[in-house]
Amino acid sequence: MEYFVQQLINGLALGSIYGLIAIGYTMVYGIIGMINFAHGDVFMIGAFVALITFLVLGMIGITWLPFALLLVLVVAMVVASVYGWAIERLAYRPLRGSFRLAPLISAIGMSILLQNYVQITQGARVKPLPPLIQGGFVIMENDGFTVSLSYMQIIIVALTVILMIAFSALISRTALGRAQRACEQDRTMAALLGINVDRTISLTFVMGAALAAVAGLMFLVYYGVIDFFIGFLAGVKAFTAAVLGGIGSLPGAMLGGLLIGLIETFWSAYFTIEYKDVAAFSILIMVLIFRPTGLLGRPEVEKV
Amino acid sequence: MTMLSVAGVHTFYGNIEALRGVDIEVGEGEIVTLIGANGAGKSTLLMTICGNPAAARGQIAFAGENITAMPTFEIVRRGIAQSPEGRRIFPRMSVLENLQMGATTAPPEHFGADLEQAFTLFPILKARKDQRAGTLSGGEQQMLAIARALMSRPRLLLLDEPSLGLAPLVVRQIFDTLKRINAEQGMTIFLVEQNAYHALKLAHRGYVMVNGRITLSGSGADLLAMPEVRAAYLEGGH
To answer: Does B148 score more than 90 pLDDT?
Structure first.
């Protein structure tokens, strides 16, 4: 029981990170119908920017942790947003209206480019960050096995919940969110009503990138090591999460992220840790075969 | 003043020339209708006015300004609204949200009053305000598309077959509404219709389009009296 609860906590924290990345996949898919395979690398860039910002803040003597974390968060989100915007502008927009595979190939190329660019400029070795937030609560204890809930896990889950609530409100209540949903459903009509569709698509990339940067910072502080390749695996898993939840669905991405985090964690805990990625990707294959619309995806029936 | 002028416009869909040199003028405060058979290019003309697809040749001017090469959202921000072919309501948004989308280019302070007006014109939309638009009946969706176009307070309203799929009683109601909006607010209306009889009755002037060209034009009453118009577009009508 204690072991189970501990894995549940670990899985929720990991799932939060996947969920935040998955939102970027699902929103971009929703609005332009393509999988942005470079999105995982934006997450990686976010983690690197966070690391560099931590080091710079340390050098100039800003060491009060809450303030430093906030600064790092803002810097990582802003820089990653610029990347997200630039990727769309350079690699996808010129191909809009081209054949369907073109932006997909471009996305994979962009992903390889970003990985190599970070590998060259930052080196290929793993980069450590000393633990910043230590300690936590012991919430259960039995036969010497303790179930702990670390402050970091609390921060990850709480921040994710706050961001997802804020983000859902943005999409469902504001004019910008309405414009995004309109572009998702009918871009031609949205333009006929005066929506600048290109700008709306750009903003979607920017929002997804900002959330990926938050996930990157969480990953950095939670695990303490990053390298240029983390975006690939995390990206593919977040993509799996988005598909599992129903690609295009915002609540689906959140749910899918949590489920993938939990499945991966429980698989590692009860079976073999070596095959945890196999478990996650088997889910992807099974969802694609048996339920391609995902858990919360909508079947395509509308009265026209 | 000329509100809309279309001069020598050609439009292509791929290799197909859908418009083959169209000339049309719509004066401020006028109701002008364009009639023609299915596939004549009527809807293409409305979409070309809005820049999607853009005209390959020729010139389109709105209130004296050349809008031929502008992107769609820039064109409609100048005061054009369209209720397009196929209605194109946003099916997964509520009726209210669809109307909010219609008001994208309108000054926000008018929203409350404009919404009231839309609900007065089409009371059924008020009852269905929070319902997903995709669940509305065809006729209700048509009303929503027209109401949405009105929400932007356009100077020029483009309507593509507003009578399509509606019961005759509702058609009459909509045409009465258009007449009233035109008379009371001076809104210029350019109306594409297959329902030629009602459209020519309503309009000050009309054009007839055949295969991407304008073949006839004149006042609504004159066109109604022409034997070739009667034969081609009014057979068994009304």
So the answer is: yes
Say what the pLDDT of residue A299 is: 61
Q: Which of A187, A193, A300 to mutate to test the interface with B (most CBs of B within 10 A)?
A: A193
Q: Does A185 contact B90 at a Cβ distance shorter than 8 Å?
A: yes
Report in angstroms the alpha-carbon separations of B85 from A93, A96, B44, B141: 27, 24, 9, 12
Assess if residue A45 is contained within a domain: yes
| Nearest residue in B to A191, CA atom | B73
pLDDT tens-digit profile of B59-79?
A: 999 999 999 999 999 999 999
Does the pLDDT of residue B237 top 50, yes or no? no
What is the per-residue pLDDT across A119-138, written as a single tens digit (0 to 9) for each?
A: 999 988 999 988 888 888 88
Mean pLDDT of chain B: 92
β partners of residue A210: none
Q: Work out whether strand B16-27 and strand B2-13 pair parallel, antiparallel, or are unpaired.
A: antiparallel
Structural domain count, chain A: 1
B128 close contact with A: CB closer than 8 A: no
Q: Is residue A238 part of a domain?
A: no
- Token pair 């690197």: residue: A48
Cβ–Cβ contacts within 10 Å for residue A290, how many? 7
Chain B: nearest CA to A303, how far in angstroms?
6
User: With contact defined as beta carbons under 8 Å apart, do B16 and B53 qualify?
Assistant: no
**How is residue B139 written in tokens?**
């006729």
Asked if residue A74 is part of any domain, the answer here is yes
Global pTM reads 0.91
| ipTM field | 0.94
| Structural domain for A92, as ranges | 2-230
Identify whether A131 is preceded by a cis peptide bond (ω within 30 of 0).
Answer: no
Phi, psi of B16 (to 5 degrees): -85, 125
Report pLDDT for A304.
39
Task: Examine residue A236 and state whether it is found in any structural domain, yes or no.
Answer: no
B chain contacts of residue A190, beta-carbon cutoff 8 Å: 101
- Is the Cβ of B71 closer than 8 Å to some Cβ of chain A? yes
- Distance, in Å, from the CA atom of A16 to the CA atom of A279, rounded to the nearest integer, reads 18
Q: If pLDDT is split at 50, 70 and 90, which confidence band does B233 have?
A: confident
